[in-house]
Structures are given as C-alpha cells and as structure tokens.
Design brief:
EC 3.1.3.3; alpha/beta; HAD-like_SerB; 217 residues; Rossmann fold; hydrolase
C-alpha cells in the first residue's frame, strides 16, 4: 500500500510521441510504406496485433542496432505531455507507459520524462543487427490491460483510481477498464467506445478531464 493518489497509463506511439516508431524504422529499410500500412490497419483493429507486429518486425531484419539512436532524432513528444506528467507527479500520482513499440526507444523516452512504469516489446539483436524477431512477451491489448491492473494493485489502487490514454484498437481494453478512459486523437473504433475523447494534439487536456471527474488535480 502507498499514499499514491492515482495512476495514469499511456500508449506511446501517436500518444506519448507524435510518431509511430516502427514506421520510422521501416523507412530505413526502404519498406516504410508497407510497414505504415500494416500499422494503420492494426491500429484500426483490422489485423491481429501480434501477427501484424511479426510482419513488420520481419521487414526490419538486417538493420544495425545503432538505428535506435538515429530514429530518436526524429521522435517528438506530443504537446502537453511534460505538463501532464509533472502536474500528476506533483499531486502524488504515478505515470507509466505500455507500448506495442520497443524498449530500445521507449526506455529513453520514459527516462526523459521521469516515468514510473514502462512495458514494451524487445527486438532481437545478433551480431549488432536486428534479426527481424521479437523476444519475450509481446505487448498485446491483453498485456496492456494486465499491466494496468498489475501496477494499480502494486500501488494499492482500485481501477476506479486509474486513467488510461491511447489511440489504437489495442488500447481499448485498458481504456474501458480504467476509471477514466480517454481516446487521444484516436482511430474511429476507439472514439466510438471510449468514455472520454481528446481530439486536439495536446495531452495536457487530460488534466481537464481528470479534474472534471475527480476534482483533485
């Protein structure tokens, strides 16, 4: 048990950051359009996420492991994210990210913001190059939901004290299970089901929703 006031969990690609990290990697292989198309269809709920991830990661085979430093220069935090994180931390909240992207980039982003929890995929590397495979547990929609529940339990919080923010179909279970579920500039399937929406690219607007519902930020 802790004295934590609440927990906010965000998706990363197209939520915490403006870009889709795997699409940036795909561009470096010359298969950017193909990767982006699979990403779009997966986020709309048209494709099984695990299969879509495997198909995209396979196209990355042969890239040097230095590519993560390369794409970091192309990644931009979404407007308002620092205000959101800093304000919640000042109010006794914990903030985390759960991503279908990769620890190789997500960890650095989380460190920059001082986030409390991180869950993402790991890319396999051999002889300094990507093998085109993911190692370990794949972060599916079920894993995102399980992470929300696990972290809330660790903090001694009820799900009613949590907030989940995301844009894609794989974010829906955690959005619907949280106390305040927010679709952020989301795909239609998410907007149609999420209790709350933000349709402006400013994550700080989540503070207004939390204040309206809970009155404590």
């Amino acid at each position: 048990m802790t004295d934590t006031t609440g927990l906010l969990i965000m998706d990363v690609d197209s939520t915490l950051i403006q870009e889709e990290g795997i699409d940036l990697l795909g561009e470096l292989t010359g298969s950017g359009a193909e990767v982006a198309n699979i990403t779009h269809r997966a986020m709309n709920g048209e494709l099984d996420f695990t299969e879509a991830l495997a198909a995209r990661v396979a196209l990355l085979a042969g890239l040097p492991d230095t590519v993560f430093a390369t794409i970091r220069k192309q990644i931009h935090f979404t407007h308002g994210v620092r205000e959101l994180v800093d304000t919640l931390h000042a109010r006794g909240w914990k903030v985390g990210v759960v991503s279908g992207g990769f620890h190789e980039t997500v960890d650095e982003l989380a460190d920059e913001l001082g986030l409390d929890f991180v869950k993402a995929n790991h890319l396999e590397v051999a002889d300094g190059k990507l093998t085109g495979k993911v190692v370990g547990e794949v972060v599916t929609k079920e894993v995102k939901l399980a992470s929300l529940k696990k972290w809330a339990t660790e903090l001694g919080l009820e799900l009613s004290q949590t907030v989940a923010v995301g844009d894609g179909a794989n974010d829906l279970p955690m959005i619907l299970a949280s106390g305040i579920g927010i679709a952020f500039n989301a795909k239609a399937v998410v907007r149609e089901q999420a209790p709350y929406q933000i349709n402006t690219p400013n994550l700080a607007l989540a503070l207004d929703i939390i204040k309206e519902v809970r009155g404590d930020v």
